[in-house]
Amino acid sequence: MIPRARHLAAAALSSALLMLPALTGTAHAAAWNAHSATASATASAAAPTSKVYAVPLARTLADVKRVANYWKPDRLKKSDSYTPATPGAAAPVSTSGGAAAPATPVATVRRSLAAQSVPPVPPRKGAAMTMGKVFFRIGDKEYWCSASSIAAKNRSVVATAAHCAYDSRQAKPADYWIFVPNPDANGETPDGIYVGASISLHEDWIGKADYDYDYAFVTVNRGFTWVAKNGGYVMQDVGRLQDNVGGLGIELNRKPGSYTARPFGYPAGAQPDGTRPFDGKTLLECPERSTRYTVAPGLDLQKGVELQPCDFSHGASGGPWVIGYDKNRKLGSLNGVNSLTWNRDARDRYDAVSSPYFDTTTGEVYRRAAAQATVPKVT
């Protein structure tokens, strides 16, 4: 056992427990000062490029219907029994659903063109309901994570953790990926089901599972609901995601410590002491707190952002960090996603959560997802 004085960092929300020695504030500051210096140099020099990878999912009507038919009401009713995503654990290679398409680089985007901020957008009617769960399959087993709808010009973008969309160990996307905003108990989908069309993410998640890039923006097809008919179910088109539930804005390049944020998610996994205080059925939030920097070299996390206190566990992966959250409108701006959780005091419960830093490169990934077209009709 490692002594408590070392303040162990606990593990990915997405994986089996990974124990890391916590780093001192001096180490944190040095890493962030180096990052800030690099960013300043970049701004004053010719803007470099970085690669955004495009990973196709369901790009045709036949693809959408194949995924939809997998997630019929009988399967969705069992959704609470599925496993919060654990891609750090061994998973079987998929033997069904067809061969996965490889990730391919898209045209590089100059950093000077990436969005710095996008305002939140309300739905066409009613209150915003931007947060929900994503469901997918790895091998022959179903998993889920948290996620949120993000304002975008194509009105069809979901933000989540990269480990909730792409398995870097197998170099392939998750199968049968869907987003369900505002899910009810027993698998009900009052605001529709949205089948993923393509994933946009950074090459360093694909290539080496670098937790500095544990975020993904998934372009989704038009939504649908299942309607009972003649003893079975038929799909009914409900339109685009943002029109129905609204979209969080996005904020980039905010210096940790200069703003506060509030994390959301659907935690369900065990705490360090083995207890399970959360069931994954209810959207929960941690207190709004000032952000601070954090690093974890063992996970290639060199520019992380941390919030404390927060006792989220498995299942909250991919849930949004929101700044400027308006409880009446249920809107604000995305500035991170739940990626890792920490047990800083080595006691019975997790006490902090961290996100990759949302910088200009994040904006490039988001812009790619926001520019993608989808199937014009899903029924």
TrEMBL record:
Name the record gives this protein: Trypsin
Keyword line: Signal
Signal sequence segment: 1-29
Taxonomic lineage of the native organism: Bacteria, Bacillati, Actinomycetota, Actinomycetes, Streptosporangiales
UniProt entry tagged with the keyword Flavoprotein: no
Top-level taxon in the UniProt lineage: Bacteria
Chain intervals for the UniProt region annotation (Disordered): 81-101
Organism: Nonomuraea fuscirosea
Compositionally biased tracts (Low complexity): 88-101
